[in-house]
Design goal:
The chain is an alpha/beta fold. Helix content is 35%, strand content 21%. It is built from ten helices and seven strands. A seven-stranded mixed beta sheet has the order 3-2-1-4-5-7-6, with helices on both faces.
C-alpha cells in the first residue's frame, strides 16, 4: 500500500487496531453504500459548504474516503474538480469508480501526492485514526498557502444513551472512544483561520439497543479498542438503555454529536 517518495519517517507496520478497523470495513464493503444513511447526509452537507470555496492551485484529497460519498458529492457540486480518494481499505475504494484512488494508512500521515494541498476534506474518518489530534495537525500543516480543510467527524458527546446504560449496568461502554470537539477546533485554529464550526446532532430510533449494534457492524464500523462484551452483558445493557416513551412510538434511541469544521491556511 502507499507510494514511493513518502516524506514522513520510515513506514512502520500497521497496528493491530488499524488492521481490525480495515478488516471490519473490508468484510462489509459491498453493503456500505446501502447502509450509510447518516454518512451520506453529512457528506452532502459538507460538500455544499465546499461549493464556493476560493481554492488555490494544488492537489485535492478526500481522507478516509471509503466508497467516495464525500468526494463524489463535492465533484457533483463543483464540476471540473477532482479529488484523490485515500483510504486504508482497498475493498471500500474498489466500490468507487473514480480513477484517482490510493490505498494508504492515514496513521502514517499524508501521502506525498497531497503535500501542498489546496483542499483536504474528510468525513467520518478522523476518529478511526490512533492519534486524531496529531493527524489533524499534520493535515493542517500539509495544506498549501490559502488551502482549505473541511472536516466532519463524530465527537465525544455521541452515544449518551449507550454510556448511560453501560454505567447503570456496571459495565464498560464498548463504543469507539471519540475525539473531543473543542480540542480538535483548538488544534486546527493554531494553523488555520477557522471559517465555520458547527456542532450537529443526529439521532436514530430502533426497536432495541442491539439493533444499533447490528447496524454499526453492518457498516463495518464495529472495531473498538475496548474488549467486547458477552451476550449476557449486552442483555444487561439493553435492560438499562433509556426507552423512548410509548407516546413517541417506543423503542430505543441512539444519538450522535458531529463536528463540522472548515478553515483556511493563511497565505504568507
Amino acid at each position: 500500500m502507499g507510494s514511493a517518495g513518502h516524506s514522513h519517517p520510515a513506514v512502520r507496520p500497521a497496528s493491530n487496531f488499524a488492521e481490525r478497523v480495515r478488516g471490519g470495513f473490508e468484510r462489509q464493503a459491498g453493503r456500505y453504500e446501502r447502509e450509510a444513511e447518516l454518512q451520506r447526509a453529512v457528506a452532502w452537507r459538507l460538500a455544499h459548504h465546499c461549493r464556493g470555496l476560493p481554492l488555490p492551485s494544488g492537489p485535492c484529497g478526500d481522507l478516509g474516503s471509503g466508497t467516495g460519498l464525500l468526494a463524489r458529492a463535492i465533484e457533483q457540486q463543483r464540476p471540473g474538480l477532482t479529488l484523490l480518494r485515500v483510504d486504508n481499505c482497498a475493498a471500500l475504494l474498489g466500490q468507487d469508480e473514480a480513477a484517482d484512488r490510493l490505498a494508504w494508512d492515514l496513521n502514517l500521515g499524508l501521502p506525498c501526492q497531497l503535500q501542498g494541498a489546496s483542499l483536504l476534506v474528510s468525513s467520518f474518518a478522523l476518529h478511526w485514526l490512533e492519534q486524531p489530534e496529531r493527524q489533524l495537525e499534520q493535515w493542517c500543516q500539509s495544506l498549501g498557502p490559502a488551502g482549505w480543510l473541511a472536516l466532519a467527524v463524530p465527537t465525544a458527546g455521541s452515544f449518551p444513551q449507550w454510556r448511560q446504560a453501560a454505567q447503570a449496568a456496571g459495565l464498560p461502554c464498548t463504543a469507539l472512544p471519540l475525539p473531543v470537539a473543542c480540542r480538535l477546533v483548538e488544534m486546527a485554529s493554531r494553523h488555520l483561520r477557522i471559517a465555520r464550526v458547527d456542532h450537529l446532532h443526529f439521532s436514530r430510533k430502533a426497536p432495541s439497543a442491539l439493533t444499533f449494534l447490528r447496524r454499526i457492524r453492518t457498516l463495518g464500523a464495529g472495531a473498538s479498542p475496548v474488549a467486547p462484551l458477552r451476550p449476557g452483558e449486552w442483555r444487561r445493557i439493553e435492560a438499562h438503555w433509556p426507552a423512548v416513551p410509548a407516546a413517541r412510538g417506543g423503542g430505543k434511541r441512539l444519538s450522535w454529536e458531529m463536528l463540522l469544521m472548515m478553515g483556511q491556511k493563511p497565505a504568507p
